[in-house]
Specification:
Blueprint (H helix, E strand, L loop, with lengths): L3 E4 L2 E4 L10 H5 L2 E9 L2 E2 L2 H15 L7 H15 L4 E8 L16 E7 L6 H6 L1 E5 L20 H13 L4 E5 L5 E4 L3 E6 L2 E5 L9 H12 L4 E4 L3 H6 L2 E6 L3 E8 L2 E2 L7 H13 L5 E2 L1
Parallel strand pairs: 7-8, 7-14, 11-12
Antiparallel strand pairs: 1-2, 1-6, 3-4, 3-5, 4-16, 5-6, 8-9, 10-11, 10-13, 13-14, 14-15
The structure holds pyridoxal-5'-phosphate (PLP).
The site of pyridoxal-5'-phosphate (PLP) has 14 residues, from helix 6 and strand 13.
Length: 291
């Protein structure tokens, strides 16, 4: 199946797609992105991702020249050309092109890219055995510097530093705290802790990206009759938890079995985690937008 890129109106193979070196995201990280999954030729949570993207565009003041409905149609069209039935879409919108920080001095026609590809974030084994996680020394960027609801390309330098730190420790993920020492999120995923059957996840004000998968899992868990709390958590709560798991578009729902080498609960994926993983999987490939 061809991995295709739609770049500013042209479709081309991934291998030959190039963009300007003066692109503002290339120069300054001044762009937004979304990662979106395709399951069974259905685009999963497409409108939720587009809504987050267009909110970011408004907040950053990009001069976006493509209406949301048109971008949606184009994305579905590129998916149908690529014919990847289970894949990963990377959607990027940058401020424009030109040297210099000042948006007044550049061509503010956004560069828009849709890449249809595949992605396996963690090995299959990690979904069965669970991930070990270490607490990162890198804190999330504070919300008064850059609102975490912006899925802004530039903010990911700190997440990459945290991921590299976790790699050096031989862990599957790095847990990032906020400036208050509260649990925020992992480098590319949101976190959930389960204690006595109650599911808890950091409140949106803790410096997290408000993940589309996080929202989906909260909804699935409530539908299944679980109590879900969006609250304030510390690493103490993680060590005291019976189970934990992480969520993300790329990660999906994955068990977390230890923090800083200390087991969480029994140190194996727990029953609530397994139940939610199964409920999540049952929806993917069945719900979604066809192309
Ligand atoms: C820092 C961070 N947190 C959480 C998530 C999960 O968000 P979503 O479920 O929307 O993919 C991501 C996904 O890329 C992320 O980068």
């Amino acid at each position: 199946m061809p991995k295709l890129v739609w770049l500013n109106g042209q479709v081309m193979p991934l291998e030959t797609a190039t963009t300007s070196v003066a692109d503002h995201a290339h120069l300054y990280g001044d762009g937004l992105f979304e990662g979106i999954r395709i399951y069974n030729s259905l685009v999963w949570k497409l409108d939720e991702h587009l809504e987050r993207l267009y909110h970011g565009i408004r907040l950053l003041g990009f001069h976006m020249h493509i209406e949301c409905a048109e971008l949606r149609k184009t994305l579905l069209d590129v998916c149908s050309q690529a014919q990847i039935s289970d894949g990963y879409i990377r959607l990027n919108v940058t401020r424009g092109t030109g040297l210099g920080l000042d948006p007044k001095g550049i061509d503010t026609t956004p560069n828009v890219m849709i890449m249809v590809s595949t992605l396996a974030l963690y090995p299959q084994e990690a979904y069965e055995m669970g991930l070990s996680v270490v607490t990162s020394s890198i804190r999330v960027i504070s919300a008064d510097a850059l609102d975490p609801r912006l899925k802004c390309i530039g903010r990911y330098a700190s997440n990459i530093l945290a991921k590299a730190e976790a790699n050096r420790a031989g862990a599957g993920e790095g847990l990032m705290l906020n400036a208050l020492g509260q649990i925020a999120e992992c480098t590319g995923d949101n976190i959930f802790l389960i204690s006595k059957g109650i599911i808890r996840t950091p409140h949106a004000s803790c410096g997290i990206l408000k993940g589309v998968t996080r929202d989906t899992v909260i909804e699935i868990a409530k539908e299944a009759g679980y109590t879900v709390e969006e609250t304030f958590l510390s690493t103490f709560d993680a060590f005291a938890a019976d189970e934990a798991f992480l969520t993300g578009t790329a990660a999906e729902v994955i068990p977390m079995i230890s923090l800083d080498t200390k087991p969480i609960g029994a140190g194996t994926p727990g029953p609530v985690t397994r139940d939610l993983m199964a409920r999540f999987r049952a929806k993917t490939g069945v719900e979604g937008v066809p192309f």
